[in-house]
Write a structure and sequence with these properties.
GO terms for molecular function: hydrolase activity. The protein has about 270 residues and is an alpha/beta fold. It has one domain: L-arginine/glycine Amidinotransferase, Chain A. About 25% of the residues lie in helices and about 20% in strands. It has seven helices and 15 strands. The strands form five sheets. It has a three-stranded mixed beta sheet, covered by helices on one side. Strands 3-4-5 form a three-stranded mixed beta sheet, with helices on both faces. β10, α4 and β11 form a beta-alpha-beta unit. It is globular and about 45 Å long.
């Protein structure tokens, strides 16, 4: 299969204020030291890579007191130039939603302030036919319905059952939206959700626990290049077999907050 990279438009947030001062997922441990300078350096390499690959990257200013704002994917969901803001379950991150929505309003986007909990592209991932929507730990079913009404696209709810994979983008990644091609870790989902995924995506790449545990699924694909944590070596080999060009990145410092490549990257999808 011939793979083709398509230029993308991303929003990112420099981890100027990154730290782990609270624990709201299994990866966070405030007792472990965090090197903010190293986190910034690792993030800068990811930011530079997007430019080298021909993608456009806008930046939102990091705000003091919001150490998780670096995880831009959680800040909103953008489909056809319409922006559904995020409403966070945890009080520690609540102010991030309005901050991201203000940025999009300032840029002239059509926006919606959400009524129900959804954590942006952490739990809402776009394929050709559907919006795949995670629930179980953060986003809720009512938020899925709100997304469907706003975007006018069918939303498929998927139940997450392993707290290590608390957002959909830690357990599933869209490799090529136009071709409805995804990869996922089956054990992260309930039996019913696994059956739905198998029916919708019979040719999906199934990822094992070793690669999932190092956040290999928290990846970004432009249709050819797949940027993923460098520790996911087995997954990288399997992606090559499918004609992709995997690029490993070291975001180990940001993993201490429970995020990696995708978490740091919010895609801005313009109107068709």
């Amino acid at each position: 299969m011939t793979r083709t990279a398509r230029p993308r438009h991303y929003l990112m947030c420099r981890p100027t204020h990154f730290e782990v001062s609270y624990a709201i997922n299994p990866w966070m441990d405030p007792s472990k030291p965090v090197d903010t300078d190293l986190a910034v350096a690792q993030w800068e390499r990811l930011h530079a890579l997007y430019g080298e690959l021909g993608h456009r990257v806008d930046l939102i200013d990091p705000l003091p007191g919001l150490p998780d704002m670096v995880y831009a994917a959680n800040g909103a969901t953008v489909v056809d130039g319409k922006v559904l803001g995020a409403r966070f379950r945890n009080a520690e991150r609540a102010a991030e939603g309005p901050a991201y929505l203000d940025w999009f309003r300032d840029q002239g986007f059509t926006t919606r302030d959400p009524e129900h909990v959804n954590e942006g592209e952490g739990d809402l991932l776009l394929t050709a036919g559907h919006v795949l929507a995670g629930r179980g730990f953060r986003s809720v079913t009512a938020g899925h319905a709100e997304a469907q009404e706003f975007f006018g696209r069918p939303v498929v709810g998927l139940e997450l059952v392993d707290p290590r994979f608390y957002h959909l983008d830690t357990a599933l990644s869209v490799l090529d939206a136009d071709r409805d091609e995804i990869m996922y870790y089956p054990a992260a989902f309930s039996p019913g959700s696994r059956a739905v995924l198998a029916r919708l995506f019979p040719d999906a790449l199934l990822v094992d626990e070793a690669d999932a545990e190092v956040f290999g699924l928290n990846a970004v694909s432009d249709g050819l290049h797949v940027i993923l944590p460098e520790a996911a070596t087995g997954l990288a080999a399997r992606l090559r077999e499918r004609g992709f060009q995997p690029i490993g990145m070291d975001l180990s410092e940001l993993l201490k907050g429970g995020g990696s490549v995708k978490c740091c990257t919010l895609e801005i999808r313009a109107a068709a």
